[in-house]
Amino acid sequence: MKVNISRILPEKGASMDIDLSEPLQPLQPDAPSRQDGLDGELRYAEPVRVVATADNSGKCIVVRGRVGTKIEATCHRCLERFSREISAPFEEEYFRKGEKPRHTGVEEEQAPSESEGPDLRYFHGDEIDLAPAVGEALSLALPIKLLCREDCRGLCPHCGTNLNEKQCDCQIETPDPRMAVLKDLWREKRD
């Protein structure tokens, strides 16, 4: 997801619009195996769209905009596959790296070094790679628990029936923990 910024580099204050739509790699390509059994449940169902503006501030290139796509995932309650649109705002600063100033608006001596900020984003030449920032923005837009819908009822803990589709016949008894001692006494007396 690379953007050519050569037309805004020569002039401080220059700006350009960005409108891209490209497929990206899966959200968790190298994630370790999860203990909940939901390995690899998340993927992009369509290309990721970025609508943004790149501005030459003189010190760096500032990219502000919005990113959106459709994801496919597994519901954490009922284990059914579902898809959902997600979008998120993002803003990143990109500093020139490893080049001598070329009479451009972005000056080398103003850019921070890697030792000053390992989390800073850098660009080489005339291109900025938006993919890492876009991937992070989408990851941050995801909820902690992925649900097919807000009122998902999940699976029956006894028989495994999907409670969104039908009600099972299981009798789920939720005893009051304060009465557990009395229940044990009642069992002892019965035996």
Question: Could you explain the architecture of this structure?
Answer:
Helices cover 12% and strands 30% of the residues. The chain is mainly β and 191 residues long. The protein folds into 2 domains: 2-152, no CATH class; 155-191, no CATH class. The strands form 2 sheets. Strands 2, 3, 4, 5, 6 and 7 form a 6-stranded mixed β-sheet that branches. Strands 1-8 form a two-stranded antiparallel sheet. A hairpin with a 4-residue loop joins strand 4 and strand 5. The relative contact order is 0.17. Mean pLDDT is 80; it is low at 29-39 and 99-104.
Features:
191 residues, 2 domains, 30% strand, mainly beta, 6-stranded mixed sheet, 12% helix
